[in-house]
Specification:
This protein has 196 residues and is α/β, with parallel strands linked by helices. The protein has 2 domains: 119 residues, 3-Layer(aba) Sandwich (Rossmann fold), CATH 3.40.50.300; 73 residues, P-loop containing nucleotide triphosphate hydrolases (Rossmann fold, 3-Layer(aba) Sandwich). Helices cover 56% and strands 14% of the residues. It is built from 9 helices and 7 strands, in the order E-H-E-H-H-E-E-H-H-E-E-H-H-H-E-H. The strands form 2 sheets. It has a 5-stranded parallel sheet with strand order 2-5-1-6-7, with helices on both faces. The protein has a two-stranded antiparallel ribbon with strand order 3-4. Helix 2 packs across helix 5 and helix 4 packs across helix 5. The structure holds adenosine-5'-diphosphate. Adenosine-5'-diphosphate (ADP) binds next to helix 1 and helix 6. Adenosine-5'-diphosphate binds next to helix 1 and helix 6.
């Protein structure tokens, strides 16, 4: 069974992913893999260069600032870049899941509802936390400004919009019993995976 694990920036989805890993479950980190593919997949690099120009790479490294500027001013370019990257990440996850002998295989990604990728998973888990708390956490984690966090949040849907699309929701406020919620969800998933 494949499970998409998502949540807005600062919600704690990476923290939940680490807990799942420590419980022995394989977790595929989509955003990390996307970065690795852009650094190593020559076919992808050629396609990015042919669409966005030679400046897309600098000394063989992705020129993030250049691409970010293009994408920021033109949403159609953002769609194109995603269309180049996402199928490759999907293929990489399919191989990851196929070679895993675990009943549950998790895929951690910042945006799965926004891109429609959620429909590729058997189940989805959304990690939520109050917006102010998320901003504080990220400012501390990344040593960045409130504005930086807010800009990144603006590209993501609100928890209210994502919640109805999610099979499970984990509340990860400072006082929430997160481990207990994770255990309950894993039990439900295992029940489901043996009954289907
Ligand atoms: P995301 O991957 O969703 O952006 P992280 O898992 O990196 O979020 O969490 C953001 C920051 O908040 C990290 O520094 C993490 O250690 C911290 N954090 C996550 N969950 C909690 C919690 N329940 N209580 C306190 N701090 C938390």
């Amino acid at each position: 069974m494949t499970i998409g694990l998502t949540g807005g920036i600062g919600s704690g989805k990476s923290t939940v992913a680490k807990v799942l890993e420590s419980m022995g479950y394989p977790v595929f980190y989509s955003d990390q893999v996307a970065k690795e593919l852009m650094a190593s997949d020559q076919g992808l690099q050629t396609e990015i260069t042919s669409h966005f120009g030679e400046n897309a790479f600098e000394n063989g490294k992705l020129n993030r600032a250049y691409l970010a500027e293009i994408i920021f001013s033109n949403p159609a370019d953002k769609t194109i870049l995603n269309q180049l990257i996402h199928p490759r990440v999907r293929a990489s996850f399919a191989a990851f899941a196929q070679f895993s002998d675990s009943k549950l295989v998790f895929n951690e990604a910042a945006i799965i509802f926004e891109t429609g990728a959620y429909s590729n998973f058997d189940k989805t888990i959304l990690v939520t936390a109050p917006v102010e708390m998320r901003i504080d956490r990220v400012m501390k984690r990344d040593n960045c400004s409130r504005e930086d966090v807010q800009n990144r949040m603006d590209n993501q849907w609100s928890d209210d919009r994502k919640t109805p699309l999610s099979d499970f929701v984990i509340k990860n406020g400072d006082a929430d019993a997160v481990l207990y919620q994770i255990e309950l969800i894993v039990e439900a998933l295992l029940d489901h995976s043996t009954s289907s």
